[in-house]
Write a structure and sequence with these properties.
The complex is a heterodimer of chains A (about 500) and B (about 100).
Chain A: H1 3-26, H2 30-35, H3 42-53, H4 56-69, H5 71-98, H6 103-108, H7 114-147, H8 151-198, H9 204-214, H10 228-244, H11 249-252, H12 261-301, H13 308-357, H14 364-388, H15 394-418, H16 424-443, H17 446-449, H18 461-478, H19 481-484, H20 493-502
Chain B: H1 3-10, H2 13-46, E1 53-55, E2 58-59, H3 60-99
Antiparallel strand pairs in B: 1-2
Classes of the chains: A mainly alpha (about 500), B mainly alpha (about 100).
């Protein structure tokens, strides 16, 4: 492993640990641990959201996908960007107005039954863990390739770091690690783009023309129309991306770290700018790599093209640039996994332990201790799973995570905020149907059963999400609607309605 | 608990106006961006309209994809502009509620 890479890598790790040390001294209450005291500024949160949003998959995976598959790779970037509109227009402000520490809190603000909180927490746990394992496995592989560290050691190092960030520094450390990562990422990618365009008279059009000449139009063209199944697959994937983000716990909890809806709103706007600019740069990196490194060399280094961006960095900037981009990739990984551990441990400690098991009667100290223990426990658990899962098809896990988020979480969150009639039975039924149908359809789909798949699509969202909405509806109507339910089971919709639209917390 | 108070707030003129103006923007805006976005996979999957080259070797698919970014940023800022009025209406709602004897926080 080269010395430059090692030095930069150590520097970045040192920086994140310094941040964590600073945060730990402030991390003395549950409010501090779960939502950084609710005092993150809008623009800071926006940068943190972009740090949480842009995983190693976005930088490395997307660059590789565009380099090897052309437009089909970029299609993912489009979905991820439009998803931000779903957050801004539909989810962000109501979530901030109704929620406290976790996604389940938002649902529990309306429905008192522990079943709602338990199922919501289960969903959060499952989605976050799936995504977390996928990130750890991908990270271990990449760190092994870039820095020459053995897979097991890489996973353990990343795991230990995320445990420290979340266990000691909570959401405050997580937030600032994500902010630092975002700045490094944007800086690194911007430098890479400039270095690439230097070779093409700083004209992106010239770059595209060169792709057409050297590689051929098929590298630019969208996939040819190939029948109904392929069409539905493309649409289903689009649904998973745009709507799944609205159900992703580690993104949603970011909205709970700011003081009010206005700050939540400016968070999304800031994040949208950063994320949009990032994704717009990916074709330059992807195609730049295809031209300056060569598709053959990219595929040879890693069949999914995951090393295209670092290889490109080496091609245009030598070993120093390679070292820097590798370190940026590493920072990207740890920032996202910290956010995921935060979401998963929150579901465990705040939802399962404090609210369901202890019925909301645990003391502040006990809750804080549970939060820290959960962070450590979840980290250790996911490290062990990731160690056993090396070489696993992580695309499957990521698809699963988004599909479950789009089906089990998103429908019920939307209906809790906007539908007057939703009742406890409807909410629980909707969540369970979303969870089981998305998991079930993936298990009988091409990712698991390859050629013998019963269900033809990779992403089940086009079926499982509408099913979940339908289940919420039928569950409610068939059990008589909100009116029939016992008073204690839910809060009257009027209160939810006023609170989610105005941010008013209490009336006297 | 507090049901009457929440109910009174929801019946103030300012709150009703807030809901009206929010709906008037958010519903059409959501329909618009969903249609604008999903037209992309639909056109790709069922037609070859987007294969046509527009600027040099850049095809319509890429142009449309880039347009999605412009659309996202544009619509986001349009939403932001609308929220100025909505925030005023929220403040007005709180004042109206206070007049009706409901203190809010």
């Amino acid at each position: 492993m080269n010395l430059t890479a090692f030095t930069i890598f150590v520097f970045i790790v040192g920086l994140t640990l310094l941040i964590t040390y600073w945060a730990t001294r402030r991390n003395k209450s549950t409010k501090a641990h779960y939502v950084a005291g609710g005092e993150i500024k809008g623009w800071q949160n926006g940068i943190a959201i972009s740090g949480d949003y842009l995983s190693a998959g976005a930088l490395l995976g997307l660059a590789g996908a565009i380099a090897l598959d052309g437009f089909s790779g970029f299609y993912l970037a489009v979905g991820f960007t439009v998803a931000l509109l779903v957050l801004l227009l539909i989810v962000a402000e109501p979530l901030r107005n109704l929620g406290e520490y976790t996604v389940a809190d938002v649902l529990a603000s309306r429905f008192n039954a522990t079943s709602v909180r338990s199922v919501a927490a289960l969903n959060t746990l499952m989605i976050s863990l799936m995504y977390l394992i996928a990130q750890l496995v991908g990270a271990g592989t990449i760190v092994q390739l870039l820095l020459g560290i053995n897979y097991v050691v890489a996973v353990v190092i990343i795991g230990i770091l995320m445990t420290i960030y979340v266990g000691a520094g909570g959401m405050l450390a997580t937030t600032w690690v994500q902010i630092v990562k975002a700045v490094l990422l944007m800086g690194g990618v911007f430098a890479l783009v400039l270095a690439v365009l230097f070779n093409f008279d700083f004209s992106p059009v010239a770059l595209f023309n060169e792709v057409s000449t050297q590689i051929g139009d098929e590298a630019l063209a969208p996939p040819p129309a190939s029948g109904l199944t392929a069409a539905l697959g493309l649409i289903s994937l689009g649904m998973a991306l745009t709507l799944g983000v609205g159900g992703m716990p580690h993104i949603l909890i970011r909205f709970l770290t700011v003081p009010d809806a206005k700050a939540a709103r400016s968070s999304v706007i800031t994040a949208t700018w950063i994320i949009a600019v990032f994704f717009l740069m990916t074709p330059i990196i992807g195609y730049g790599a295809a031209l300056l490194v060569g598709r053959g060399a990219i595929a040879e280094a890693n069949s999914a093209g995951n090393l295209a961006a670092p290889q490109l960095a080496q091609a245009v900037g030598g070993d120093l640039f390679l070292a820097f981009i590798s370190a940026v990739a590493f920072a990207t990984i740890v920032a996202v996994v910290a956010g995921l551990v935060m979401a998963a441990s929150g579901a465990f400690a705040h939802d399962f332990y404090s609210n369901v098991l202890r019925r909301g009667e645990a003391s502040e100290r006990e809750q804080l201790r549970a939060a820290r223990a959960a962070a450590i426990g979840i980290s250790v658990f996911s490290i062990i799973l990731a160690l056993g899962a090396s070489g696993f098809n992580i695309a499957f896990l990521i698809t699963q995570a988004f599909a479950v988020a789009a089906s089990a979480n998103f429908p019920v969150i939307v209906l809790t905020i906007f539908w007057k009639k939703l009742n406890t039975v409807g909410a629980v039924t909707g969540m369970l149907v979303g969870l089981l149908s998305s998991i079930g359809l993936i298990l009988i789909g091409p990712n698991v059963m390859t050629e013998n798949a019963i269900f033809p699509l990779d992403s089940p969202t086009i079926v499982s999400m509408p099913l979940a909405f339908l289940a919420c509806y039928l569950g409610t109507i068939l059990s008589g609607g909100a009116r029939e339910e016992r008073r204690e089971l839910h809060v009257p919709y009027e209160e939810i309605y006023v609170r989610s639209n105005t941010g008013i917390k209490k009336v006297m | 608990m507090g049901r009457r108070e929440w109910s009174r707030i929801s019946r103030t003129a300012a709150f009703k106006e807030l809901i009206r103006t929010k709906r008037a923007f958010i519903i059409p805006a959501t329909v618009f961006f969903l249609v604008f976005y999903f037209a992309l996979p639909v056109l790709i999957a069922f037609t070859s309209v987007l294969d046509v080259k527009v600027i040099g070797a850049i095809n319509l698919a890429y142009v449309y994809a880039f347009a999605q970014f412009a659309m996202t940023l544009g619509l986001s800022h349009l939403y932001l502009a609308k929220t100025k009025r909505w925030d005023e209406l929220v403040e007005q709602t709180k004042r109206d509620a206070a007049e009706k004897g409901v203190e809010t926080e």
